Amino acid sequence: MAGNSQRKGAIRKTERKGSEKGSGGQRRRGLAGKKDIPKAEDRTYHAAYKRKKQQERRASGAHDNRAAIRQRHGMDEQVELVVGRNPVIECLHAHVPATALYVAEGTKSDERLAEAVHTCADRGIAVLEVSRQELDRMTGNGMHQGIGLQIPPYQYHQVEDVIERVQADVKPGLIVALDNITDPRNLGAVIRSVAAFGGHGVIIPERRSASVTAVAWRTSAGTAARLPVAKATNMVRALKQLQQAGYQVIGLDAGGDHTLDTYDGTTPVVVVVGSEGKGLSRLVRETCDTILSIPMGGKVESLNASVAAGVVLSEFARQRRIKDSKK
């Protein structure tokens, strides 16, 4: 039999001919992804690419138009516009240092609009009529109700200014410090609550914090003009400075040493409010003399920062009124 020869020098064959298992790596190579495949939005022939370019042109054009309009009206990029009839009226009542009033053409007049125009005319504030589309571009949205009040950049105070303001008042100091608050609406609401409940000022960090923008002006309803807002280069250092001035620094957080029902808020106090998500930063929390929690029922675990500040300020104001009535 072939391959089984017994003669000297013969070799027995052990390998068999025929197909073997597997594809020799062809399937593996076929399943492997191709290298350097661009995203759909980066392929010039793809619809996603055309949509991306169209959005970029729109965004660029809107920014350029807005910048050109603001430049045409002599508006610096840092100048803010407070929009809406009630916020504008409240800012004028609070004597916010306004520089111009913009009114959209064809805006239906009412008592608030007439009051705003007359007040600005009496104070020598320029009243300018612009098209509605132009006011849309100046403000960046169409929720202006046909009116916008131009105000210069906010002039921040120093922490020392807030302390001096308290010293000039016979009432114990009541200050709110904000930590990790990045929403200007929360900042504006806190400013409004501090002013409403007899507080003396608000302190915000210089970095990673909301600023007094047009949104904050609107939410504060103009009270930012009456209440000093100080910027602290280092919040921990500012809190220690207030402690040296005789203040108790309390931080709002769950599981505190005290609850709002057990804490005496009639002494000079600084209420430190953190964000709803992150809460107080570690160093700020360690600097606080006391951690205070707000008793809550139901399944609610936390409150919005501005709401929490308002609740605490309202309770402290109540305690102080009771104390004053007993004198």
UniProtKB/TrEMBL annotation:
Residues 81-157 form the RNA 2-O ribose methyltransferase substrate binding domain. The gene is rlmB. Keywords: Methyltransferase, Transferase. Residues 1-73 are annotated as: Disordered. It comes from the Bacteria. Coiled coil: none annotated. Residues 33-45, 56-67 have a biased composition (Basic and acidic residues). This is 23S rRNA (Guanosine(2251)-2'-O)-methyltransferase RlmB. NCBIfam families: rRNA_methyl_3 (TIGR00186). Belongs to the class IV-like SAM-binding methyltransferase superfamily. RNA methyltransferase TrmH family. The keyword Ion transport does not apply.
